[in-house]
Design goal:
Alpha-Beta Plaits; two-stranded antiparallel ribbon; 2 helices; about 15% helix; binds iron/sulfur cluster
Length: about 60
């Protein structure tokens, strides 16, 4: 569960690049929000790397 990235809703520009980047389809865009489907996320970090504004981060990288 801790492998699900964190989403910064203030910094996110809603480009939806992360949704297409996820190899297992764990990211959805709904009601102007990015939603992670935690059951399928492998924590690969692709979405974190593709976000152009750094609005996604891996939880394990800083605290927790
Ligand atoms: S790639 Fe980054 S800016 Fe684009 S929708 Fe995803 S979180 Fe938001
Ligand atoms: S970390 Fe990987 S598997 Fe999880 S949501 Fe991001 S791209 Fe998808």
């Amino acid at each position: 569960m801790s492998s699900i990235p964190s989403w910064d809703e203030i910094g996110c520009i809603r480009c939806v690049a992360c949704v297409g980047s996820c190899p297992v389809g764990s990211i959805r865009f709904s009601n102007n929000r990015i939603i992670f489907l935690g059951e399928t996320c492998t924590g690969c970090g692709l979405c974190v790397r593709i976000c152009p504004v750094g609005a996604l981060s891996r939880k394990g990288d800083d605290d927790e």
